[in-house]
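Worked example

This section walks through a single chain of length 319. The input is the sequence exactly as stored; nothing has been trimmed or padded.
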Amino acid sequence: MGTFEFTSAFAEQLRLFLVFKESMGCNGASRIYYLRSFDAYCTENDMRSFDQQTIEGWVRFKKSSQPGSIPSWMSYIRDFGRWMRTHGTPKAYVLAESWKSEFHRPQPYLLSRKEIASFFASAADLQTTSPWQWQSVAFFALMHSCGLRTCEARRLQPEDVDLTAGFIDVLWSKGNRSRRLPLSAQIIEVLAVCDRVSRQRFGQHRPAFFVSSIAAPVASVSPGVTFNRIWKQAGLPLSVGGKQPHPYSFRHHFAYANIERWMAEGRDINAMMPYLSRYMGHATLDSTFYYIHTSPDFMDGYAALVQESQGMIPEVGFE
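Given that input, the structure is written out below as tokens.
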């Protein structure tokens, strides 16, 4: 367990809260940094009541001291307030959701059927001496078919991929949430080829399912670099000053393809969204509804793209 030093009237609760978070596998330095900032603010201003004035006063102070930042740090003080309520301070103030923010998500790049087909054809013939030569199709097809985050694909361990039973385990992902995702027969075949070559090159034991040339886990920048290389090799155009394609575009495609499929089947989208949210590893439905609550032009454009993408490799969706 870590040692946390605080000086305010909330020092002991802060220490116990961080010990609790650590026991849950949440060891982020960002949380500690901002809660220490809150502690220093309370010490300096002699704040002794965990009420609305104290909490919102600190939030205003932080916002004014770092203008333009994405206020994700507000979740730490909100989480601490909830913890306080269940650990002896029932009247502790929980920061209102209305503080969530001025953060605006950019519209994602829309992958067309032609671009997807060209991309995977190029990936299958990638001119490189690195493991991406045989890994690229599997890596990006997994993102496309399961809607994975780039980091989730990178962090997969060999034991997380069960090709016999036909599923992958995405463990301790964003927010320390885990989930088990089924694989289509097509993706199992693609992953099996990748796994077989990797075992031949690096032996039966390797530190991750997808590895670098030195058999280390794939670096965070590597998927983006490889994606751009495949895109360029395929001769696909890049817009000047507009939205650009990137690995995460496959995750966006997964979400929209499912939503549009359900719409075409006449299903209740609101009833289906919790399933999509759980599958994609979202903390709340807000993140999932982002894929619907965009401009009408966006949805109209994507509807046309998905309509022409039926039957495209790899298969998307889950039942």
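What to look for: The domain at 113-307 is CATH 1.10.443.10 (hpI Integrase; Chain A).
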